[in-house]
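stage 2 :: seqdesign
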């Protein structure tokens, strides 16, 4: 059931860190990480390891999204695009 909750959350909210998913769903981070590993092995999600810095301190995590989905382009003008 946790995997269904995680998949539904990612479908609704897009790409997120494992810690963000844990906070939003109320599932402990250790269980989120094991479920994400399972979903990744099944090919349901794409994930990668990331390091972010909060107030100068490195924070390790996993960035996840539904497999096959492409994040929307950032707003604004793009280099090399002619109007």
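stage 2 :: out
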């Amino acid at each position: 059931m946790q995997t269904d909750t995680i998949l539904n959350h990612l479908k609704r909210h897009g790409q997120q860190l494992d810690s963000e998913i844990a906070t939003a769903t109320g599932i402990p981070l250790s269980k989120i990480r094991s479920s994400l590993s399972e979903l990744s092995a099944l090919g349901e999600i794409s994930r990668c390891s990331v390091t972010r810095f909060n107030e100068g301190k490195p924070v390790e995590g996993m960035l996840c999204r539904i497999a096959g989905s492409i994040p929307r382009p950032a707003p604004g003008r793009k280099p090399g695009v002619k109007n």
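stage 3 :: structure notes
- The helical segments are 2-13, 18-25, 29-42.
- Residues 29-42 form the longest helix (14 residues).
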